[in-house]
Design goal:
The protein has 221 residues and is of the alpha+beta class. It is built from eight helices and seven strands, in the order βαβααβββααααββα.
Length: 221
Amino acid sequence: MWPEVRIIFRADSGFCRWKTLKYCDKNDIGYVVGLATNATLKRLVAPFMNAAKNAYDVTGFKQRDFHEFEYGAITWDRKRRIILKAEHLDKGANARFVVTNLELPPEDIYDGLYTQRGDMENRIKEQQLYLYADRTSCSRFVANQFRLLLASAAYVLIEYLRREGLAGTELARAQVSTIRLKLFKIAARVVVSVRRIVLHLSSGYPYRMLLTRLATQLVPT
């Protein structure tokens, strides 16, 4: 459907398997995958980590630098490009490894692509914890699938509200639970007439102006 679009596979070290990497290489799929530390890697990067420690000892401030080299585990089919984050903190050395087939600079790969994985996991937790995507207790698969579909649709709706309606406001980066609590779960008096349905909200509602702004931005006049 989209032959010009390149897929980039991003995952933590639990998914770093040579068959997965080989498949990505064969099918022109980019990847940025965490790599677990081992004795060989520690030996290879010892000069970089020692330099970070020496700089920390001199300055007393966190040291952080990026390097790259080729490495292939015994079980891999070939060597691949490895990105090293050589960091030394007040708690000690903190080396992180990423294997990739992308040609971006090391820091761009780590900070611009790999670390965004953490934010993605936060979004998944939002859907699970606050929109009950894990409520799949029905005895039928289709019923559980429909529940998950509803939770997913609710998340898409709230994400749209957060991105388009709440941009530039105090809730621009609020979690789903906060948006639900402050903008959705509002007591109101419903008055139904022949021509319309009117919601009467309390004049003391603390987020009155924010809700008005949100409605104005999203509802066509």
